[in-house]
Amino acid sequence: MKNKKQIIRIVATIIAFLALMLVTLVPKLKEKNDRLGSISRLKSIGFCLIQYSIDYTDHFPNYPGAKGFDLLGKNDFLSAPLFYLAPADKVSVLQSGPDLKEENSSYAYLGGGLIRSDEIEEYPMIIEKPWLVKKPYCIVLVNGFVTTSKSMPEVANCEEFIKYLSKGQSSPTWNIILENARAVDKACGK
Q1: For the CA atoms of the chain, what is the radius of gyration?
Q2: Gap between the Cα atoms of 125 and 146, Å rounded
Q3: CA angle, residues 134, 43, 67, in degrees to nearest 5
């Protein structure tokens, strides 16, 4: 009888331990899966931006934000609206209608008005909108590669995030990107 109680306690302890591990690990795995999904989508969008620039004599879509992304879809480079929503984004809504709008996108396209060159490879073309990002991670498309960081600063909008990324540098390209970030912020009411 004493052995049965001891076995029941051991089994109950093991079950409790496994349940505790499950409760702690599942959210972390989901968060990592969401980040990987967002990285994958940004890579696809980045590839389409490069293809667009090849077809349009090194010019990227001329408009920032959703209007620039919309040009990718209209040219059959990336017409699936789901690609513009990050998996963890619970704020933006799936596109309904022919034109992509800021509320249908988790990402901010900042390359409007830029031309593909060796220099442009150093600058962020797309960022995940800072107010939709689960802190402290940020996801940025630079030079066709997606980079992530665990040191996302406390920023309220795209403009502040670009100022952080530029580290105070000023150049015509940074100025265009900063202006595009302001346009996305304005369109989103930030």
Answers
A1: 21
A2: 10
A3: 80
